[in-house]
Amino acid sequence: MEFSYTPLGTASATPSVYRYPSAHVLNIRGRLFLIDCGEACQIRLRRMGVSFLKIDHIFISHMHGDHVFGLFGLLSSMAMVGRTSLLNLYAPAAMRRTLDFFLTEFGEGVKFEIAFHSLEAVTEPTVIAPLRNLDILAFPLRHRMPTYGFLFQEHEPEPNLHKELVQQYDLGIYEMACLKRGQDVVREDGTCLRSEDFTYKPWEPRSFAYCSDTAPFPNLPGWVKGVDLLYHESTFAEALQENAATTLHSTARQAATCALEAGVGRLLIGHFSARYPDLSVLLEEARSVFPNTDIAKELTTFEIPLKKHC
Prior knowledge:
single chain; alpha/beta; 11 helices; 20 strands; globular
């Protein structure tokens, strides 16, 4: 059951010869989710070998160009390769006008429905896409315009039964069903079979959170608490903290502090200013606070492994 994250672009607003604008792909059990769609996103998807037809959900964090300029091209290409299935687009309310312009001026060949989901009402972590085995939440970030982060959480798995106890107690189908639902079973002879003794969680649900662009704020660590993998923007080094504060971005140290306070499993930093062709200063700064930090290297797939119970 795959749960992986691949950054397609980790640059900030200014174009860079080293990095592409913001775009990211999640693969969760074979379902593909696109987060942000910066310029040349579709080219990066091609390079990964990802079919445009397999992306059914696109999430736009905010309406700055480095996060949306690739959307027109991607939607046009989806139409040209014959897409007919529904596409869900989750974005700030302002995206509605942009989408209407695209459909009016360039949408002649678009034969698929685009369901627009406005994030305008989101003021705290809110489920915006309840899917089978997965919840996707949005939460507000602190930036110069309405901006949102996204949290992907697997559902709790159904408990498994200890096979040796099934045989030892010669459990019937009805008894097994009750125990798996968390219900204790009282037999005719008065024996009580407790669900907690007969069942176990087969694996721990996994989670991923995406935070770009944002300045630090008190609620954020709690909103991404305990996630397995956190992507957090790190536009500047601490030496340019004033620049970060002015533009409502984060430094690498601030991103790491958020990860530390949230108790996440692993931190990936991205959304780098073009002034850093060498990212070692940002990585070292973040690792000094949160050691399990890495660069979100473009076109590198980061797996969240399944943690099974014995």
